[in-house]
């Protein structure tokens, strides 16, 4: 189970540092790669409840094995991708479905197998494996992308999949609930609603976001109808009346949003703004990854001595402080050393939250609700990752283009007849991660104009990054407010 969690988590962290290579190798743009990263988490979110329900229908062990096999097929397709569509199908969709069938069963099987201190330690182990994936992902992905190919990252995952399948006989099959059925219409509504919202955010289309919200409202009404007709819904709405459970998974969602957000925007800034390669990007992210890993393991048992609610709130505050420190350090001349304190502090805060949130969330529900609750919690966590890439990434790109356009249009140095062409050239180069943000040789600009453009580009990048970190700090504040509703008891 730990290996399964490891490869699912490492997937996204590897791909984040390979953004430039993916854009170039697959002849696409940054928006498509942003969508691929967000879609991977979105598919997991859309089908996690389905995976949990399948565990009830055909057995947890069988569902886990099927999910792992599907994941392996997707990994092979992703490794052989010839274009972005093939990557979307193999990685984002097929791997995402496989991961959705695997993820909800890990928490459920731990709940069934362990109690008390052992349960807390077990959640800590799973959290640690996720943290290891987050820690080694950037550096391994960066190394492979820079000195070999990002394809090797997927190839290595195939080996892990084979190991997981080979040792899956160690799992004990769960009892099959003969009354359990799969709500296919509910699955469709939830998947369509979530997809519309994510795609609408990336494309900045309010109408699409509105459609997504309406579809999710229809999903909730359908689930209520299923309950009233004594049929088995995908998720019972009554579970959302549990205040601690809701505050727990919402906090976990926001934590995932912040982590996914920084893991997307920082590589874009380092590679497109500062000219870093994938390996150098991985090195910069390493302090945060190590901090998440160490702190999540070291603090996991503290929930029995100190109220987890307090530990989570401390973690939220520390995460926000770290984000603020990075925000203030940002410049086009910023060094790895200057970014290190903020990244390490953010890692400590996120690690502190990771170590406690799953236990807080799952300990709030009754024994018979744990399978369903685990599915909801994992769905929202994956949704947080998808939203982090979509929202924080959209803030960065929109603010970058907006600041640059305003700077060019207000400039007294640049030739008015070339301003539209300059703006188009900049947007195209950023979308295709070309490094050189303006096609100087095509525009044939004088040195005075080039200096002016360099100043506008630098100012736009920094202002856009600061706006992105403002959004993450706002998420931390919201998370702190939500955490108030958690129980004060020790676990």
Protein architecture, described:
The structure is a single chain. The protein has 491 residues and is mostly helical. It folds into 2 domains: 2-182 and 234-399 and 465-483, Up-down Bundle (Growth Hormone, Chain: A); 183-233. The chain has 17 helices and no strands. The protein has helices at residues 2-17, 19-25, 30-58, 60-79, 84-113, 116-147, 151-166, 184-202, 206-228, 243-273, 278-298, 308-329, 336-362, 370-410, 419-431, 440-443, 447-483. Helix 10 (243-273) packs antiparallel against helix 17. The protein is globular, with a radius of gyration of 23 Å.
Quick recap:
It is built from 17 helices and no strands.
List the helices and strands and how they pair.
Elements: H1 2-17, H2 19-25, H3 30-58, H4 60-79, H5 84-113, H6 116-147, H7 151-166, H8 184-202, H9 206-228, H10 243-273, H11 278-298, H12 308-329, H13 336-362, H14 370-410, H15 419-431, H16 440-443, H17 447-483
Helix pairs in contact: 1-5, 1-6, 1-7, 2-3, 3-4, 3-5, 3-8, 3-14, 4-5, 4-7, 5-6, 5-14, 6-11, 6-13, 8-9, 8-14, 10-11, 10-13, 10-14, 10-17, 11-13, 12-13, 12-17, 14-15, 14-17
